[in-house]
Amino acid sequence: MERSYQYDIVVVGGGTAGVAAAVGAAKAGAKTLLVERNAYLGGEAANSGVNCFCGFYTCGSDPVRVVKGIGQLVLDEMRALGPTIAEEISASGNRDIIFQPEYLKCALDNLLEKEHVDYFLHTVLIGAETVENEIRTIQCADDEGLFTVSAKAFVDATGDANLSRLAGAKLIWGTDGGHPQAATLTFRLSGVAADVDLSPAAVERAVVRAKAEGIRNLTREKGFILKMENSGIVHVLLPSIIPEGLSAEEMTRMERETRKQVLGYIQALRTYMPGMEHSELAVIGPSIGFRETRKLVGKETITADDVISGRKRPDGVARGGWKPEIHRDVNKMATYMEVKSGSYFDIPLGALQSENVKNLFGAGRMISADEAAFAAVRVMGTCFATGHAAGVGAACLAVDERAEIEHVREILKEQNALV
Asked: How far apart are CA 89 and CA 100, in angstroms?
């Protein structure tokens, strides 16, 4: 018997943007379903071992809070589970939120249950039916077979624009020239001394020496190693590769090559990083983390000038406070474009709306932005904000076939978002 489901809003992808979209839509009164292919929610925050929320605050020595709303509800759920998050000043001088990914999985479960959001894990998107520039249904697969889900509006929060591609939305790969930022496979080491120097300069000294001594499969020489306070576990963000596609063949190549890099970095850090001599590998990934792959061509595009000038606009539905952080070279740290300390920019609803598919919204690291602007909006704090806005926008569209800016902004404010 064919299975089918009917909802007002369907969100595809259960990362930070997808969770925010689903909760925002549900709180706006829409019957909402979230589908996720993994066994847990969290996206890159859980699946790729990235344990740092950047973008809740603006950059620099005078940080300003720019993300609340659903992002704040997630932080509240984390705090309810115990000391699982902490605010820290990073090596780059910015205020970040460090969290424990395994607890995040549970916090997101708790939040969606509390907000009455239906969600299906272990669910793979395999198709979409688009009629007259509107998505009517999506096709999904689980271990029992195939099923369809119909809805009035859809949010693509897959990170890689997977729903948008299947629905025939206009997309670009990486930048306009087709060159995405480097992807990184993180790993965790336990048994690290409390007083170890984890500065990028110390990492660079160790890796450069290791390369000189013949240790193989090392790429990035300078990068970040993150450590929770009072913990002997560190998260290493060094193994890197440039994506050339998302096929099974290409994904296998990237996972294989970056795992080789993990082994090389473990050898290098144990040998040349004082305080890591007795460290042990705790976990790899479990999956490579992408910064940039496919992106939506939206009704509007956020530009570098918007970010650098801190542009404010009456149609803003989210705030971005991160400075452009561009990872183009697998052997070097990111290139940063400086912004005024404490400044932020507004993100318009049009940057979250597909140019050619009327009932499709994008959220997270696939929204419409040029190269430099994208390097500022892709971080997870901002993903909470754009996801929240996309979910509310989709809910408004489902009610009256329009997503009026003022109505979207009004609902976002009611849900404690900063707009």
From this structure: 17
